[in-house]
Amino acid sequence: MNPHSSAWHHRLVLCLAASALSLVIVAGCEKKDLRPRQPIAAQDIKIGVLYMADPDRETSGFTYEHQAGIRAMQKALGLTDEQILIGRNVPETDFAEEERRLREFAAAGVNIVFATSDGYDDASVKAAAEYPGIVFSTLAGLHRNATNLTNYYGAIHQARYLSGIVAGLQTKTNKIGYVAAMGMENSEVTSGLNAFALGVESVNPDARILVHVTHNWSDPAGEALATRILIERGSDIVTHHTDTPTPIREAQKAGVLGIGYNSDMRREAPDIVLTSVVWHWEAYYTALAQSVIDGSFTTAPSFMGIKDGLCGLSPLNSKLIAPGTREALARATARIGDDSGIFDGVMETNDGRLIGQADGKLSPRDIVHNITWYYRNIVEIHTAAPGAAPLPPHSAYFQQAAPS
After folding, report:
1. Domain containing 237 — which CATH number?
2. Which of 271, 262, 270, 226 is nearest to 244 (CA)?
3. N or C: which end of the chain has fewer CB within 10 A?
4. Could you give the CA distance from residue 323 to residue 313 in angstroms, rounded to a whole number?
5. What distance, in Å, lies between the first and last C-alpha atoms of the chain?
C-alpha cells in the first residue's frame, strides 16, 4: 500500500457508502458524501500521479501496475500524454518533497492528483486545503473531506482467497511458502495472507502456510533469502506480498512453483507460475476521472473488488494447475460478494483464539484495518521485528529455524 508504510494499520479507515464512481464497499464514516463538482471537459482535464519509484523503469510489480492503470484510463478517456503528469521517485517519508511535487502539479494546472501511497496522505491533506479546485485521491489514505479529498483501496483478499484454492489443490508437500513484506501487525498484508490460508484450507485442510516476514516493502535480497528458507523448509509452492517479483524469480531458479502478486508474473517466470493475484487499477482511475469530467464526483472512499473489475487472478497455467482447479474457482467466485464466503463465522487463530461470530462476518473495515492475527494453518518461520540482528546465510538459518 502505499499501503506501503509500516503505519498502514494505524492509518487506514474505509467508509461504508455508495458512490457514483462504482458499487463500492467501505466502512462506516462520520462524513457525508457532499458537494458534487461542476463538469470539466475531457480535453481540459490534467492528471498528476505520485509514485515511489520510476514507472518507466519497472517491468512488473506495484508501481508498474499503477502506471498500467493510468495508461488504460488515459486511453479509455481519450486523454493525451500532455494531460498526464508523472511524479517519479517521490519518497513516502519525505513530507517536504511530497509537498514540493504537489505544488508543482498545482502550478501545472492539474485537476486530479492520484497519490499511490498512504505515505502521501498528510501531504495530500495539506494540499487539498490549499488547492480546493483540485481533486486529491490517496491510496489507502485515512483522510477525506466533503469537497476534494478522498481515498481508495480494494478487496484484494478476494483474489488472495482464490489463489489459495489454486495452491491448496496443487501442493504435494502440504507446505506453501509466503513471503510477507510486513508482519502480523499490518492488516493489509495479514488480511491477504489469512484469506489465502482460508482458501487453501477450503480444499486442503492438511496444508500449512509457512510465512517469512521481511519487514520491507521492497527488499530483493531479503525476499530472495526468505524464499530460499521457505523452500528449504519444504514449500513446493511460493507466493508473496512484496512490491518486487523477487520471490517468483527465486522460485523459478529453484524449480519450485509460484503464485505471483501485483502483476501477471508469467513475464518473470513463465515456467513455474500457476497464476497471479493482480490489480486492475484502471477500474478506479477511469471511474474517478470520469466522475470529475461529468460533475458527479463525491468524496466517497472507494473499495472495489472482483465484481467491480479492480482485482482478480491472471490466466491459469493450464500446463501446471491441478485437475479440478477451474471448477473449484468457479464455485468460489460465484459465492464471493460483499465479502461473503471468506471471513465468515468463527475462525481459529494459530495461537488458539477464536475470532468472529457464528452467524456473522467481518466487516470491510475489520478486514483492511483490524486483522492482526494469523489463521490456524499459518506457521511463522521468521517474523522478527525491524532492527533485529541480520539473518545468517539461509542454509545456517534453516538449521536454527523453529520446528514445524
Report:
1. 3.40.50.2300
2. 262
3. C
4. 18
5. 30
302 lies in a domain? yes
Grid coordinates belonging to 254? 529453484
pLDDT in single tens digits along all 404 residues of the chain: 444 443 333 333 333 233 333 333 333 333 444 445 789 999 999 999 999 989 988 777 889 999 999 999 999 999 999 999 999 999 988 999 999 999 999 999 999 999 999 889 999 999 999 999 999 999 988 899 999 999 998 999 999 999 999 999 999 999 999 999 999 988 889 999 999 999 999 999 999 999 999 998 889 999 999 999 999 999 999 999 998 899 999 999 999 999 999 999 998 999 999 999 999 999 999 999 999 999 999 999 998 999 999 999 999 999 999 999 999 999 999 888 655 679 999 999 999 999 999 989 888 778 877 899 999 999 999 876 555 555 444 443 333 333 33
Same domain, 163 and 100: no
Domain range spanning residue 293? 8-155+281-308
User: 3-state secondary structure string, 304-366?
Assistant: ECHHHCCEEECCCCCCCCCCCHHHHHHHHHHHCCCCCCCCECCEEECCCCEECCCCCECCHHH
3 located within any domain: no
* 259 and 370 co-located in one domain: yes
Within 10 angstroms of residue 253's Cβ, the number of other Cβ atoms is 13
Residue closest to 276 by CA, chosen among 261, 290, 258:
261
Q: Is residue 203 part of a domain?
A: yes
Pair 242, 181: CB distance under 8 Å: yes
Identity of residue 335:
R
Both 165 and 98 in one domain: the answer is: no
**One-letter identity of residue 208:** R
C-alpha separations of 195 from 35, 36, 224, 240, 404 in Å: 37, 36, 24, 13, 21
272 SS3 class: coil
Do 133 and 121 lie in a common domain? Answer: yes
Q: CA 375, CA 205: separation in Å to the nearest integer?
A: 12
Do 110 and 207 share a domain, yes or no?
no
Q: Are 157 and 219 in contact (CB under 8 A)?
A: no
Tally of structural domains, the chain: 2
Same domain, 194 and 299: no
Give the whole-angstrom CA distance, residue 138 versus residue 363: 22
Give how far Cα 187 sits from Cα of 9, 66, 220, 346, Å: 6, 21, 22, 18
